[in-house]
Amino acid sequence: MAVAIEVDVADSQPGTAVPLRVVPSVAVPVAVSVGGRARSGLLSPERRALTIGLVLVITLVAFEGLAVATVMPAAQRELGGLRYYGWTFSAFLLASVVGIVWAGEQCDRHGPARPLAAGLLLFAAGLIIAGCAPSMLVLVAGRAVQGLGAGVVPSVAYVAIGRGYDASMRSRMFAVLASAWVVPGLIGPVIAGAVADYASWRLVFLALLPLIAIAAALVLPALRRLGAPDAAAASSSRTVAAALLAFGVGLALAGLAVASPGVAVAVVVAGVVVSIAALRTLVPREVLRGSGIGAAIVGNGLVNMAFFGTEAFVPLTITTLRHQSTLVAGVALTAATISWTAGAWIRERMDDRVERRTILRVGVSLVAVGIAAAALALWPAAPIVVVACGWGIAGLGIGLVYSTFSLIVLEAAPEGQEGLTSSSHKLAEVLSTAIGIGIGGAVVSAGAAGGWERMGVGAVFGVMFVAAVAAVVVAGRVRV
């Protein structure tokens, strides 16, 4: 989505703020002249490389995420192992937890360039493993390596926005990064679906490798110029705690698939105990209390669990239960991605006009409506186009709330601890999503084994709808 910035300077004095209005048009602003003095924009000389580099990296990760979600049913049909279907997403997300925390810690100590370089290398290695996987277990392993690398990206992006842009530019930069999903959203799922149907799903992984080198060459020099913070944070071994957290959650999710009830309960309880102990080390106390900034972090986690916990099973439902092509499933994901971007720009325009708490409530409610519409895919008489449009409503909702939660958390971050705060924020988001998809995978696997697969998918949609409703409640406790 292209934008132009209209600026009213008729009554403005040098050094004063001027109203900005975003309209569909030509380009993101480079600079605005006020009273004869140039005011820097997102593409001003000192920020141009950083802005373009961040957009390219986010575009790469977005393309991969949307494409993989589209082709995973095709991979499962070739490799078998339906019981591991949910793990192809959960392993990625749990590994991302470690990457997020490590990157946040490294950004506060050394700056954002070094962790992003390591993250891109891991991401590339994961693509190779997954693209050459001979079984679903190896595919899960490749996805875990990918997750380690991909987890670095959001922490680096948040820190770069916090340190590289003025407060007046951050909201627009979040909207620009949301726009980085437009091209992947338009072509990613559709191309991935066509590749899976007419060539091989493996190309969805392997074809991205050359783009990683290009993205690294563009963004790393700009990140090096940001340098390290003036007061570098001391090491707190949070990465070790993150690894324990990922292990504990993974153990609990694995316990859900154990046939023996007694053993299953023991494994789940052990995983929960390890997870809680690690979480107390990683997340500030007010986050665990769920009030103030904590409410923003918890609410963001719940709405992401609801949205992505549903989206992971939308392609499976369309291709397996409704017997549509992978290409059709990609169209449904495309609808949500486009509406997500539209929601992000609508939210940016409403930032000074509508209370953020109201935006949160409306957006999360739209996600709940979209989940209910997606569940119509289970009804054989429901047209697939209705399902795609319904999922587009969910995309609009997540677009409204995603950057809103992010801005609330970023603005409350103590100076010099942007990495710690952003990693806590992304930690809750990714962890909630991993848990939601993991539970969904266990339910679907049990349903397939028991001959009630359609009912199992319906139960997943029901759980995610409840998570969306809970997010509406938590959003009311956010302090703006």
Concise overview:
The chain is mainly alpha-helical and 480 residues long. It is built from 19 helices and 4 strands.
Write structural notes for this entry:
The protein has 480 residues and is mostly helical. The chain has two domains: 40 residues, no CATH class; 388 residues, Up-down Bundle (Growth Hormone, Chain: A). A hairpin with a 2-residue loop joins strand 3 and strand 4. The radius of gyration is 22 Å and the shape is globular.
Helix-strand layout with pairing:
Layout: E1 3-7, E2 20-24, E3 31-34, E4 37-40, H1 48-79, H2 85-110, H3 113-131, H4 136-150, H5 152-164, H6 167-179, H7 182-198, H8 203-206, H9 209-226, H10 238-255, H11 261-282, H12 285-289, H13 293-311, H14 314-321, H15 326-350, H16 356-374, H17 384-411, H18 418-450, H19 453-475
Antiparallel strand pairs: 1-2, 3-4
Helix pairs in contact: 1-5, 1-6, 1-7, 1-9, 1-14, 1-15, 2-3, 2-4, 2-5, 2-10, 2-18, 3-4, 3-9, 5-18, 6-15, 6-17, 7-15, 10-11, 10-18, 13-16, 13-17, 13-18, 13-19, 14-15, 15-17, 16-17, 16-19, 18-19
